[in-house]
Amino acid sequence: MEKGIKRKNNQDNISIENDIINDNKLKKSKSNNNSSNNDNNNNNESLRILEFFCGIGGMHYAFEQSGMEGVVVASFDINVNTNLCYQHNFNIKPVNTIIDSLKVEKIESYKANCWLMSPPCQPYTRGGKNLDDEDHRAAGLLNLINILPKLNNPPKYIFLENVVNFEISRSREKLIKQLDEMGYEMNEHLVTPTQFGIPNDRARYYLSARLPLNKKIETGKYLDNCKFYREPNFLNKINESDLPSLSNYRENLSEEDELKYHVPDKYILKRYKFRFDIVKPNENKCSCFTKAYGSHHVIGTGSFLQTKKFEKKYNFDNPETLLDLGLRFFTPNEIALLHAFPIKYDLLNKSENSKAPDYTTISKHSFSFPEEMTQIQRYRALGNSLNVYVVAMLLKHVLFNYDNKDFQ
Ligand SMILES: C[S@@+](CC[C@H](N)C(=O)[O-])C[C@H]1O[C@@H](n2cnc3c(N)ncnc32)[C@H](O)[C@@H]1O
Predict the structure, then answer these.
(1) CATH code at 329?
(2) Taking Cα atoms as reference points, which of 185, 175, 129, 119 lies closest to residue 149?
(3) Is residue 220 domain-shared with residue 312, that is, in the same domain?
(4) In this predicted model, which residue has the larger pLDDT, 45 or 227?
(5) Does 121 participate in catalysis according to the annotation?
(6) Considering only CA atoms, which residue is closest to atom 26 of ligand 1?
(7) Pocket of ligand 1, candidates 52, 59, 77: which has the most ligand atoms within 8 Å of its Cβ, to mutate?
(8) Is residue 217 part of a domain?
(9) What pLDDT sits at residue 313?
(10) Per-residue pLDDT averaged across 186-190, rounded?
């Protein structure tokens, strides 16, 4: 008989979740919002998770926020800075081994039943070289795909996050074909945090794959009929004008600290005519923060926050007009909060009235940067990371929810 999985105290989780996001964002359907769904009711198997390409642990936090019961038995990454941050928060040292060379026996030794991963995106990024499966940075994912059929007990659940464009890659096709042959049912999403009530754009690709509970699925047919879900079936549509303003996510900085994040004039002047994404605190959307944010690479790497002269009309053809707007970078803490990391309110000097959710209330571990991590390392780590809340909701309502019918 197939075993399922356990949820942590389901009711608690729902009420916390509803505190965090307005009720109207989650559909109140029985199948999607009732955590004690049929399939999971008589479950007695806890999740044992492997977190590949763990970075600062976005997947780990998402798992905690999903409310499922289980444990991350090992995480893997080769970046010493992010590994330090991971250990600082979870007290677990990620395995600093190149995933390309992991062997079947090593993976089996963990007796894991769930894999969470966000492989490097450079092989697939728009505007990049687009080498896809021929890029050396795809080798880790390809190795995991090769290992899968060799395992005596393949993981029951697999979740993958990547950039938009991955959905048309050969790497994705290889992964999907392998999973399809092994009888996984799958579901693919292309969504962004604004759909989940968070004022940050970060459109990403998500794959949820699992071994079906009781039914047998016809293998080898997935690619013929698959579709990408752009509107999760458990969410109500949110108007962007209803999103909380960015001021709710703003760190309360002293004047002196504000200056630390000032965008140097020369960055602005040397990008003559470039239309920077400038946002005011009362606006309710900012653009995707990439790993180059906070450096001199200011084109397309993320929004600038305007802190002065809100009424002033400026002109990108005359960049001098931008210089007295008090433009600053969003701080690493602000980005962490926009990415739904459980950062403590006191680190942000936030008032209790902020409409930015306090994710520490639903995460076992909170998030902070170790002191020795430099500003640039923090930005890079965040740019590589993911939106924890989006992943948590997809884990909870899609991957681990056998009542969700959007699987084939
Ligand atoms: C897109 S980031 C994932 C970040 C992570 N989800 C987070 O929340 O921070 C990819 C990560 O994979 C790591 N990485 C890249 N290639 C690797 C390899 N071959 N073996 C192990 N780790 C690798 C990088 O150091 C980076 O931290």
Answers:
(1) 3.90.120.10
(2) 175
(3) no
(4) 227
(5) yes
(6) 55
(7) 77
(8) yes
(9) 95
(10) 97
Whether 224 and 257 map to the same domain: the answer is: no
249 and 226, same domain (yes or no): no
Integer CA distances (angstroms), 373 to 80, 228, 329, 402, in order? 10, 38, 18, 41
Signed CA dihedral, 72, 74, 76, 80: sign only: positive
Q: What is the pLDDT of residues 80-129, one digit of tens each?
A: 999 999 999 999 999 999 999 999 999 999 999 999 999 999 999 987 88
Distance 319 CA to ligand 1 centre (A): 37
Structure tokens of 245? 């303003």
Write out 36-90 in H/E/C secondary structure.
CCHHHHCCCCCEEEEEECCCCCHHHHHHHHHCECEEEEEEECCCHHHHHHHHHHH
Instruction: For residue 198, give the nearest of 284, 301, 289, 293 by alpha carbon.
Output: 284
Alpha carbon distances (Å) from 293 to 160, 296, 379, 390: 24, 8, 6, 21
Pairing of strands 185-191, 228-229: parallel
The answer to whether 55 touches 381, Cβ cutoff 8 Å, is yes
Buried b (16+ CB within 10 A) or exposed e, 187-209: bbbebbbbbbbbbbbbebbbbbb
Residues in the chain: 408
Same structural domain, 192 and 251: no
Specify whether 168 is located in the same domain as 49: yes
Whether 102 and 199 share a structural domain? yes
Q: Which domain holds residue 347?
A: 241-370
Q: Is residue 52 part of a domain?
A: yes
Candidate list 54, 85, 121, 288, residue with the active-site label: 121
**HSE of 388, CA atoms in CB hemisphere, 13 A:** 33
Q: CA 374 → CA 211, 253, 285, 381, 396, distances in Å?
A: 42, 18, 27, 11, 34
The span from the CA of 323 to the CA of 330, in Å, is: 17
Residues 234 and 270 placed together within one structural domain of the fold: no
CA distance readout (Å), 262 to 199, 256, 389, 404: 22, 10, 29, 46
Residues 219 and 277 in one domain: no
Selection from 274, 263, 187, 261 nearest residue 222 by Cα = 187
| Residue 159 parent element (H or E) | strand 157-163
Is the Cα torsion angle 104, 109, 110, 111 positive or negative in sign?
Answer: positive
Give the pLDDT band (50/70/90) at residue 32: very low
Pocket, ligand 1, Cβ cutoff 6 A: 53-59, 76-79, 82, 98-100, 118, 120-121, 137, 140, 384-386
Q: Would 377 be classed as within a structural domain?
A: no
